[in-house]
Amino acid sequence: MSSFAVPPRLAFVVPDDVDAPQVFLMPLPDGPPVALEGISAAIWVLAADGEEDVVGAVGALVGKMPSEVGDAVEKYLQELVFRGLLTTRSD
Questions:
Q1: Predicted structure pTM score
Q2: CB atoms within 10 A of CB 50
Q3: Domain containing 66: what range?
Q4: How many domains are there within the chain?
Q5: Which of 21, 72, 73, 90 matches a 20 to 30 Å C-alpha distance to 38?
């Protein structure tokens, strides 16, 4: 699995005063704002924070085995990279 990072020209806010995870993203200088909530936000935060095993962390978060969530999480991470909301990190 790849590791991820926040792209250099992406502004983001992760509010800490809410019950469910939220992330507000905006590609600079003129990209459309994007709001992520719930598990979508949690996946972005885990990946952006450099979590090496995002699938395992998401599985633990939702109480499922990594094999149960792996395909969906991997697909969503690829979508985030495609949309420019994450980048893959070259180690």
A1: 0.92
A2: 12
A3: 3-89
A4: 1
A5: 90
